[in-house]
Amino acid sequence: MKILTNKFNTIKIKGTNIFALLFSFLLVCITVCAFAQQSQLYPLTTSTKVGSAGTADVKQFISSVAVTVTVSGKYADGFQVYGTIECLSPKQFTITTSSEYRVMNDNVTIPAGSVMLTQSQKLNAFGNFIPANLALKNIDFGSITDSKNNIILPDGVYRICHFAKFNTQFISNPSAVAECGIFTITCQPINGARITTIVKPVVSPDISQTIANSGITSTMQFSNPIGCVSQVRLYGKIERISPLPQITITTSSDNRLNVPFTPGNSTPITATMQLQAFGNFVDGNYLVGGVNPATLKDVRNNLRLPDGNYRICYYTRYFSPTGAIGGNASNPDLGCGNFTICNGAGVAPQFTQPVNNLTATSLLGLVKPASPVIFTWTPPQSSCGIAAGALTYDFEIREILNNQSITDALNNPYVFRKTVLPSTTFLLDTNLNRNVLQVGKKYAIRVRALSANPGKLLEIDNNGYSRVEGFQYGNSADPQVPKFNVSYIPFLERRSDFWDNKLTDFENKKGGDTLVPMNQYVPLVLTKNNIVYSPDAIELFLVLNPELTEMDKVKLSYAPKLPDLAAVPIKDARNFITEHAMNLTPDVVEENRFKKYLDSLNLYVRTQKTTVQGSELVELVKHLNTFSRQVRITDRVTMNLINTLLSELLFELKANLALLNRRDFNLLKSVMANIEELLTSTSEVTSFLNKYEDQILSYNKIKHPVGYSNTEAENPEYLPALMDPLLPFNVILCRYTKTQPSTPILTTPDLMGTYKVFYVLSTLYNHKNPEINAKSTNTPASTAQVSLPKTTFKLWAENILNRTKTKEQDIDFMDAFLRSKKRWPYPKHFTIIIKAE
């Protein structure tokens, strides 16, 4: 019995081995059969190898020895070879032989097991790259063909494959990507060139003459990648770094004089090329930002630069054979040379006394009767200085009659005038001149700086005249106390465009000197002078111009006194330019965050039944889904604000909407309204709720920013979300003296260096949501620069030493936004004023 059992076990073990062997044999048979079947289905193998980087002219590249195509296998009859080229990145598209194309008179045969395609056969595989013989996917011929109908591949990573057919039947595997070749095309490396610019020390205000006389030398160094012949266009920009206002002069998109050229290893940029980069400084060929272009013209309509510190930069952009403008061939901020222009005395003189030593309360400020009355003023300020004794001064006093403004008094006769004064101080002896100043009366004073040498004309602002100042001499029977009765009005009540056009017509002598209601005049003047309209800005303006508090209307010609705002240090300004440029770029983190929130909102709308879902929420989610196609090209700051609002919205919806009271419900709807406004601000493509559509005609007329090609403008996919860009703002703090009349202080050390600015959307109200938090700048307030979209923010500042805060206030940036659109693409920075207690 034991023996039988052992035998049985032995047989069982052996049986098990036999079954395993049979199973392995079966797998081998299946594999061999499948291979044999595939071999029978595809008897040929096509192998494509690429030995070097690609050449943009695809026909030239395929026909070269860099691309080899080998066909292996057994096939008795002749066959045809077709090809396909696939762009893998950055934009996926495919070029392949058309299904209607038949390779004629070029049947390939295999005499000895394999054959290498000839140059003619490789080209025939793509129908000799004749557009009619090709089929394109995700791209059109117009964007990849030049004027001679040659196909020019853009920079990218490509895969080229070949496959064999007999009639219409594949006889090699069309999906065998392993047999394909990979190549890259890099003919236009970003910032692959380097430009060096040197400016000779003495520069004329007529910059075109300086360039024409070889006062500026510039050289471009560039090495064309192997197999590439890149063409570039030269662009130029001139920037006044200091003093303010900043001035920019750049190449216009309409300039056709900057003809493309092919650079060598070292290419001198001649004076002719430099002038052509600015369109020979002919109107329409260049753009001026920061100032009215008319102020830079002399009597012969030549461009003349005012005194200041400048830099001139040249850079190149690629110009493809298709006519499209590509990316930067050189860095716009590196090919620069600095220079200084000193041609005059600069800023006009300004009074320092009695303006800054008024001792009693009055509408204009009170000067106590005394002898003598001292008048002092500053000499004209210039970055290059002026020799002592080179100037003389004319001093004048005029009486201000009842119901007159300070500037109206300039039409009155002199009560006193002294000419050719040698210094900036004048002592009026009231004992010798008894009836010049009378107690209780008001007076306007003005001084003019003139060249002591009649043969030398100095260029001084305002033709040498100071700002007109006023004072009251002694106590009057009925002293006036300033009353700030001009209140803040909402944007839609300001009629900004209407009055702005009236002012423009008046300045261009196309309209009359119209009377403007005071509540419209204040925002008009503030925004015209690049100050954001806000309650604190109104107060500062009226403190400086107290006579306006008596008026209901004022003429457009009235010249008000404006604050002398602190300048942003050059180093901080340059750092901000870099930071601002980064803020204008998209952010994949914000993009992914948006997609996550949008998925949650879509799920909520599908699964919940709420009152708000019936209308506003569904509409909002609909347009958020439309907007999602724009997220990848929307700047990071705007996306951060949208995401913050979406976080707020989701938090409340998930918390339980049914438990919200009416106030919270209304706040929730205002969050949605803020999201809609940001979407509207981001792109015309998603402008579904432009609340100001009827009021802001100038905004609606702007379809795309200057500088984008027609092809980009016609295709919404290429319209950048930066169409309504982030607006850069300067932030400055001020306070007032405790003495009467109060005067503004803007540049004391504590204001310049101890505050930080905070801002937050006014509808971010839910402190329970951990994602909601105010933002803060990293620099002191009086030298801070921030970038904000055109929506409304709550803004305040905090002293970083004692933690005291300024009063929060809502600031509407719509006026600044409209003015920036009119000055696109080089808007001057607006200033936000915050009052510190």
Short description:
With about 850 residues, the protein is an alpha+beta fold. The chain is built from 17 helices and 36 strands.
N→C terminal distance: 112 Å
Biggest sheet statistics = 6 strands, antiparallel
Instruction: Specify the helix fraction band.
Output: 10-25%
What is the structural class? alpha+beta
Let me know the number of strands: 36
State the helix count.
17
Please provide a written account of the structure.
25% of the residues lie in helices and 25% in strands. With 837 residues, the chain is α+β, with helices and mostly antiparallel strands. Strands 3, 4, 6, 7, 8 and 9 form a 6-stranded antiparallel β-sheet that branches. Strands 12, 13, 15, 16, 17 and 18 form a 6-stranded antiparallel β-sheet that branches. The longest helix has 40 residues, at 2-41. The termini are far apart. Residues 1-16, 30-39, 357-362, 477-483 and 683-723 have low confidence and may be disordered.
